[in-house]
User: Which sequence fits this backbone?
C-alpha cells in the first residue's frame, strides 16, 4: 500500500481506540522498552503526544526516563523551515500546544542534535523492513538524517507492521526498532 492510503487507514484505526485502550497499550509499550539495551545511553529524545490524534501516550516512558536520571529532549517544530529545534526538558520547561495541537516547549536549554543517543519516533504505521509512515511533512526524516550515525531510532506503535510500504523515498530514514504492546521488532 502507498503512504497516503496507509495514513488514512491508521488514522481511522487510532480514532476507534478508547482512552482506556490507549492508556493500556501505551503502558505495555513502555514496559516492553525496558527490555531494550538502551539504558546505558544519556540523551533520549521523545515526542509529546497529540492527544487529538490518539498517539501513543509517552507519559509512562517519561516516568521511566526520569526514574533512570536520563537527559530528556523534546522538540519544537518550525513549519517554515520544516526543522525541529531541540530542548532539554526540565521542571521549568513551559509546554504549549501549537496550531496543530502538538505540545511543544516555549523555550529552554537548546540541545545540539549530535548529542542525542536515542530517539522515540512517532508514526502512523510501519512495515517489516523498518520503514515508517508519519503525517507526511518530513520533520522526523530531516531530523533523523542530522543525528549521529549510531543514534538508536525506536518507533512506537499500537499496531502490527504492514508487509511493505510501496512508495518509500531515498530520504526516508528507517527505524532500528519498533515497539508495540505485544512485541519488539528489530530491523
Assistant:
Amino acid at each position: 500500500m502507498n503512504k497516503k492510503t496507509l495514513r488514512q487507514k491508521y488514522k481511522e484505526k487510532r480514532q476507534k481506540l478508547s482512552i482506556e485502550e490507549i492508556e493500556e497499550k501505551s503502558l505495555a509499550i513502555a514496559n516492553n522498552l525496558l527490555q531494550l539495551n538502551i539504558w546505558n545511553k544519556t540523551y533520549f529524545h521523545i515526542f509529546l503526544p497529540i492527544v487529538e490524534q490518539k498517539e501513543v501516550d509517552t507519559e509512562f516512558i517519561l516516568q521511566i526516563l526520569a526514574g533512570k536520571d536520563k537527559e530528556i529532549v523534546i522538540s519544537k517544530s518550525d513549519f517554515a523551515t520544516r526543522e525541529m529545534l531541540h530542548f532539554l526538558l526540565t521542571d521549568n520547561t513551559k509546554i504549549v500546544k501549537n496550531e496543530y495541537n502538538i505540545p511543544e516547549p516555549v523555550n529552554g536549554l537548546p540541545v545540539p542534535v549530535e548529542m542525542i543517543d536515542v530517539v522515540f519516533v512517532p508514526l502512523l504505521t510501519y512495515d517489516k523492513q523498518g520503514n515508517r509512515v508519519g503525517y507526511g511533512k518530513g520533520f522526523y526524516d530531516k531530523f533523523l538524517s542530522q543525528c549521529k550515525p549510531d543514534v538508536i531510532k525506536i518507533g512506537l506503535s499500537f499496531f502490527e507492521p504492514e508487509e511493505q510500504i510501496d512508495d518509500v523515498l531515498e530520504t526516508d530514514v528507517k527505524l532500528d526498532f519498533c515497539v508495540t504492546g505485544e512485541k519488539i521488532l528489530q530491523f
Q: What stands out?
A: The longest strand covers residues 71-78.
